[in-house]
Amino acid sequence: MSFVFSPADTSSLPVAGSTDRFPVRRIFCVGRNYAAHAAEMGGDADREPPFFFMKPADVLVEDGAEIPYPPQTSNLHHEAELVVALGQGGRDIAEADALTHVWGYAVGNDLTRRDLQAEAKKMGRPWDMAKGFDLSAPIGPVHPASQVGHLAKGAILCRVNGALRQQGDLADMIWSVPEIVSFLSRSVVLRAGDLIMTGTPAGVGMLTPADTCEVEIEGLGILTTRIAG
């Protein structure tokens, strides 16, 4: 068998403290998983079932990168997030077993074209172009759970040009990591290499050209992304 053109390279992330790479299959994202952020986006904090959207795997951006300001927006937002990296998949995973499927964790930034998202919401349309555009998923090195443990609490912060924008704790998530993995596995068969971005705390805000955005999660370090001037 031959392909009509060469297949795309496998998207991947560095593994902290190693020369190995973590191959990425899909990127799932949880919407409104912190009560305060749900409120600032016009929702409520009720514990409704989680909902998900996706980013393509090839929109990954590694730590320290400079990226261009994206087209078709004048309101680019940062969203600091814990990223879960799955080492094995499954269907209908029990919540009690969910953490055995987690290979590691990383720091992420769910870049969002907020004006496009607002227009899509108003029109009852999908969010794809607001969330899944090129270079929209800065994610740091994956830290093996065997080394950092399973994260259920710890500070999550975002700074822009050194000024604090977002500050929360992983313990504030409405849906925990085991609950998210279990719930998502009822809708799709999860696979090794899938990433789950677990939502952002309150304080999301605008990024402009020449800004430097830092997302920090206790125990996982800092993810730095610069917007080209």
From TrEMBL:
Gene3D superfamilies tied to this protein: Fumarylacetoacetase-like, C-terminal domain (3.90.850.10)
Domain Fumarylacetoacetase-like C-terminal: 27-227
Pfam family, one: FAA_hydrolase
Domain of life: Bacteria
Molecular-function annotations in GO: acetylpyruvate hydrolase activity; metal ion binding
Keyword tags: Hydrolase, Metal-binding, Pyruvate
Key word Kinase present: no
Entries under InterPro entries matching the protein: Fumarylacetoacetase-like_C, Fumarylacetoacetase_C_sf
PANTHER family xref list: ACYLPYRUVASE, FLUTATHIONE S-TRANSFERASE
Protein name as catalogued: Fumarylpyruvate hydrolase
Protein source organism: Salipiger marinus
Lineage summary: Bacteria, Pseudomonadati, Pseudomonadota, Alphaproteobacteria, Rhodobacterales
